[in-house]
Amino acid sequence: MKTKRVLIVDDNxxxxxxxxxxxxxxxxxxxxxxxxxxxxxxxxxxxxxALVDVRLPDGDGTQLAGRxxxxxxxxxxxxxxxxATVESAAAAVSAGAWAYLVKPYATPDLLLVIGQAMRHxxxxxxxxxxxxxxxxxxxxxxVVGTMTAGLSHEIRNPLNAALLxxxxxxxxxxxxxxxxxxxxxxxxxxxxxxxxxxxxxxDDFLAFARPRELERQSLTVNALLDKSFCLLTAEADERGxxxxxxxxxxxxxxxxxxxxxxxxxxxLLNALQATPRGGMVVVRANAVDREWVTINxxxxxxxxxxxxxxxxxxxxxxxxxxxxxxxxPLVHATLAQHGGSVRVATSPEGGARFVLKLPRARG
Length: 363
Ligand SMILES: Nc1ncnc2c1ncn2[C@@H]1O[C@H](COP(=O)(O)OP(=O)(O)OP(=O)(O)O)[C@@H](O)[C@H]1O
Ligand SMILES: [Mg+2]
Fold this sequence. Notes:
- The protein has 363 residues and is of the alpha/beta class.
- It has helices at 13-25, 36-43, 61-71, 86-94, 107-174, 178-209, 221-239, 257-274, 327-337; strands at 5-9, 29-33, 49-53, 55-56, 59-60, 76-81, 99-102, 217-220, 242-247, 252-255, 280-286, 292-299, 341-346, 352-359.
- It is elongated.
- The model has no long low-confidence stretch (mean pLDDT 90).
């Protein structure tokens, strides 16, 4: 529990003794001072609530209230006065006092006012801490985002240069006689696919750390799938997995084509990687609902066990050697940015089903 510090400024010893006793009994940490000068000194050590007599030997309590507020803006001052006049009340308020008590006051009244002031100060402190924390988090996100963008750029440039050189090497190897060709081209194709994989990870990381504004357009699910199917057919063949689609021609969505293509690539690659030889990956989409288009990415792999269904969307969660664990968090973030959703279920083939909901385009 935080200490609740009360500063008493009064030059009447018997009243002070009495106050100290009452407040200490309420678990307040009390400091008592009898002059303005001493009070300002003591205020530097920190206090939450100050009880200040209006008449002090070396000055005016109302003025002291203003200076105490200056020294500690989050704290509150309660003024104690012998006379209740409109002028003194107005002066107390303009000096920034929280409350104004006329002597003699009843102890329960005093405790009530101090309690209220204390709660107010605590609330202010909490609010300030919260704002500070939010600001720190925002600044951190900005710095991390900028750093990531810079780093990704630095990685992508040499990767693209390597890819260019690789194309050159492949072309030259292509001119060799066929015997030697095969033995060289095969490892080269592995180098190419590894470079592409790195490029994809950089893309995912960048999109996740620093999502850009969406460029929305109306597009059919079939058009969206054309590109990813074209890019993944060879991979599917190699794995001995059939890649199919059962998509309603009328399924038309509103979304950012590049970002949704990235989503499809991630989900289809996951599905292909999970499915054993002889299995299948099917994309199914319908336009039954007026507001939403549902796209299911189904596979005949082992599926995702119930206890892992939340975790797979967490950044860096992966069960694969060399997996980044960024694919699904990116899918989740992109769908959320589109106002849609993604969840995992079980496919009719017994494997995983990823259910995407995206806003349907009108007309
Ligand atoms: N179709 C699926 N079937 C079974 N498990 C899946 C499927 N898709 C994803 N998972 C599980 O979710 C985890 C996280 O997937 P995510 O795409 O985020 O990262 P990753 O695939 O492991 O790494 P990367 O995408 O970089 O290759 C996977 O490691 C896997 O355990
Ligand atoms: Mg993945």
